[in-house]
Structures are given as structure tokens and as C-alpha cells.
Amino acid sequence: MRFANILTAVADVMAGVAIAGWAKVPLIVDIDSILQITCLCIATAGLYGGGVVFNDIFDAELDRVERPERPIPSGAVSKTQAIILGIYLLLIGIFAAFTISILTGYIAIAIAACALIYNKWGKHRGFLGPVNMGICRGLNLLLGMSIINESIDSMGWVAILPIVYISAITLISRDEVHGGQKGPLRIAATCYFLVYATILFIAYMNGKIWQVLPFIAIFIFLTNRPLLKAIKNPVGPNIGAAVKGGIIALIAMDAAWAASFATLPYAVSVLLLLPVSLIISKWISVT
């Protein structure tokens, strides 16, 4: 289920909650708020977990050649067991989302559908594949924002940024097994810069530029260090490290979004998911 990655999905939702304006008060202490955010976190965990389980299901035959250590080709679980788990996780995600609102439930259904489309067809469709994967992340940010439905009308455009960012990561991830060219890596660097600049601009407009700078600095460090190494030498292991860095760095990006719209303690609470994810990623594969 890529548990380290699931924490990045939770961070997306927490960032969406901040963008919606729910986390502007110093602390969220009432039980209704805690329950709603908890349900959103359960929803995104189920949707992400189910999505990556189905990724392994659809890739099982290819993985027997390229990644025999994965659970299905290694024999750790059967394909039938994986299908049951994947369905179970997606249903948990959808049902948890409907406890928030009808709109939240519909967004969850859209995420599940986009994940399955990507796993079955999208990843094999050139330019459309990375965009398909990016849309899953953009919808995940909207999932968090839907805690206040009206916020999507005014701030829903922000979801374009994770679409751009994840599209870039997905583009370069295609070369993490056999290596590739520098072109896709340079495209990714351009997309990353667009995300950095937009976050900083919004933080400036919200009067929170100094609050955001530490978070954006961490984000830039985590993404650029492995990416620059891969650009210099685009072999498989370097590209794989760039993909892993980009995925884990999502938490820092979400913390920067949170710092742009909410209080510093709330942004720090998002960032605290980063060391947990990094520790877990040492034992459980991210890609």
C-alpha cells in the first residue's frame, strides 16, 4: 500500500483544509472539526492505498520481469487477495468521504475512478498518463478543501499546481528502471519552479511570506538535490531517487500551502508527517 506515500496523501488533505480556511484559528479543538478531518484522512488513505494496490495488480505480469520483489510476483500475496484488499480500501475511502458531504463523496469517487483508469490504461498513454496521475493528486487537494464546499468555487484553481507537479514526477518515473534522457528531467525542473513561484506569490499576497520561507526551503531542497543529480547522470537509480524525493517532498509542499493560508502550528503539524514518512520509506518502497 506504500504506507510512506499514504502520509503524503494525508498531507494533501490537511493542506486542502487550510486552503479552505478551516484552519485559520490558532488550534482546532472542537470535536466536530477533529472528526471531520479524521474522516478526510481516512478517506484519502483508503483511496491512495487502494489505488496503489490496483497498480500492482495491473502490473503483476510486468513486475515478474522488472520488479520481482513486489508482493504479487514474489508470491507474498495472491492476485485475488490483492483485489479484495484494493476494493476494500477504495470503498473505505469513498464511504468515509460521504460522511463529510455529498460533494466530498463525489470527489472521492472521481479519485478512485481516475486511479483505476491510470492503472489500467493511463500509464501507457504518453502525455495523458502523467496528467491522469496528476489529476488524482489535484482531486485529493480538493477532497480536503471540500470540508467547506464553497471554498472550491473561489480557490479550486490551486489544484492545478499538484496536477503539474505530479505530472512531472510521473513523467520521469517511466525511466527509473532502465534510465533515460535529460529532457524529461528538465521539464520536471521547470514544473517544480512553477510550483515554487506560485506558492511564494500566494504567501506574499496573504502576508505570510516569512512564515512560508522555511517550508518552501525544505521543499526545494528535497526536490532539487536528487533531481540535479539525475540530470547530470540520468541512470535508473538516480532517476528513481529523484522520483522518491519528489513524492516525499509533497509533504513539505503541503506544509508550505498550509503556512500560506493557516497558522504556523498547523503548518508544522503537516510537516511533522515528513520525518515519519522518511523513516517508513527506508523499509517500505515508495515507487
UniProtKB/TrEMBL annotation:
- Keyword Endoplasmic reticulum appears in the UniProt entry: no
Question: Which parts pass through the membrane?
Answer: 6-23, 35-54, 87-118, 154-173, 185-203, 209-227, 239-258, 264-284
Gene3D superfamilies annotated for this entry?
A: UbiA prenyltransferase
This protein's source sits in the domain of life called: Bacteria
Q: Which Pfam families is this protein grouped with?
A: UbiA
Establish whether keyword Cell membrane is in the entry: yes
Which GO cellular component does the record give, naming just one?
membrane
Q: How does it sit in the membrane?
A: Multi-pass membrane protein
**Which InterPro entries would you find in this protein's record?**
Prenyltransferase_related, UbiA_prenyltransferase, UbiA_sf
Subcellular locations according to the entry? Membrane
A Gene Ontology molecular function term for this protein is: transferase activity, transferring alkyl or aryl (other than methyl) groups
Q: Which UniProt keywords apply?
A: Cell membrane, Membrane, Transferase, Transmembrane, Transmembrane helix
Q: What is this protein called?
A: Polyprenyltransferase
What is the originating organism of this protein? Chitinophaga caeni
